[in-house]
Amino acid sequence: MTQGAQYSTLSPALAVGDDEPDRNLALELVRVTEAAAIAGGHWVGFGDKNAADGAAVDAMRSLLSTVHFNGVVVIGEGEKDEAPMLYNGEKVGDGSGPEVDVAVDPIDGTRLTALGYDNALAVLAVAERGSMFDPSAVFYMEKLVTGPEAADMVDLRLPVKQNLHLIAKAKGKKINQLSVAVLDRDRHKPLIQEIRDAGARTRMIMDGDVAGAIAAAREGTGVDALMGVGGTPEGIVTACAIKATGGVIQGRLWPTSDEEKQKAIDAGHDLDRVLSTDDLVTSDNCYFAATGITNGDLLRGVRYQGQKVLTQSIVMRSKSGTIRVVSGEHQSHKWESYARLK
């Protein structure tokens, strides 16, 4: 389905012993995120986030059924009674091959897509079965993400100013050259003030912090760190990518109510514990794939050139530390059925 892609031959993900995912799986996953991005991309700027999300879900689920693994969605569109497709617990893949956990986000940033704002992505992460942290008890977590230079230096328990000075020192920058991605939420007003008082810059994110988090762990994006409270599922997806970059994500569960707090305690969670990258994803063999829907710090969005649709994706494998940026050219008429066009 990928016409003229940078990597045009996608061989089946035959695994050693057929019990763990192998390197070929990474490129199969790109086909899935490309499909979701192209389908959702038709709805960029039309103001209908539900139509965009529905189209992306359809496309992602269809392509997932062809992937050589026995997958279970552990982070999806919701429970079965809430979402008809890609719900938590749904089996995906062709049923053969390795058993894996699957985290899907057909559009990370549905509102960004609807309004035509930057940093919307189609996202997919895969890890060995049972290795992804169970986010069901608490839906939000406090996060700190940065690249490999400062990975062993930062600590979520330290004051914001101290972490920023450590990042600046590790990167050989002045603190006023640092840019910190933060979700634009009222709850972050004190954090934003702390960052600015420390002398660093803020880069505000409207929605979807996966792109911002990964950009913080990649060179050349203009983002040096991500801080603040965001979705726990997004944190787990990010951890799959961070394992390949050599950066770090630290998280601390952030209940939004007494009921959620008690639910977390009953589930055995220590709410004071700082979760590391390895706590969020225990496997050393995990995969992350994303395709840009709109332009952003991490990837270019879906573009149209005559009868072609152009995409840019990133795919990572933690076991080898391999990161590939994949450019694709696709024949637009072959994708219209996924886009739910008017």
Description:
Belongs to the FBPase class 2 family. It comes from Arthrobacter saudimassiliensis. Substrate binds at residues 108-110, 140, 185-187, 207-209, 231. The structure is a single chain. The protein has helices spanning 24-41, 49-64, 110-115, 160-171, 189-197, 209-216, 232-245, 258-266, 277-280; strands at residues 70-75, 91-92, 99-108, 121-128, 140-146, 179-183, 201-205, 225-231, 248-253, 286-292, 303-305, 308-317, 322-331. It is globular. The protein is of the alpha+beta class. The model is unreliable at 1-17 (pLDDT under 50). Strand 11 (303-305) and strand 12 form a beta hairpin. 28% of the residues lie in helices and 25% in strands. It folds into two domains: 23-129 and 286-338, Fructose-1,6-Bisphosphatase, Chain A, domain 1; 140-280, D-Maltodextrin-Binding Protein, domain 2. The strands form two sheets. Strands 1, 2, 3, 4, 10, 11, 12 and 13 form an eight-stranded mixed β-sheet that branches. Strands 7-6-8-5-9 form a five-stranded mixed β-sheet, sandwiched between helices. Helix 1 (24-41) runs antiparallel to helix 2 (49-64).
